[in-house]
Amino acid sequence: MFHLSPRHDDIELVYPFWVLRERSRVTLIDTGFSALVAERRGISEYRDPTALLAELGIVPGDVERIVLSHLHYDHFGAPERYPNARFIVQRDDVAFFSGAGRLQPAGALADAPSIAALDDLRRAERLETLDGDKSLGDGLSVVRIGGHTPGSQVIVLERSDGPLVFACDGSHFYDNVLTKTPSAIIYRYDEYQRGFSAIERLATGGRWFPGHDPAMLQQLDRVQERVYALRDA
Ligand SMILES: [Zn+2]
Ligand SMILES: [Zn+2]
Question: Which residue ranges form the domains of the chain, and what is each CATH number?
Answer without folding.
Answer: 18-220 (3.60.15.10)
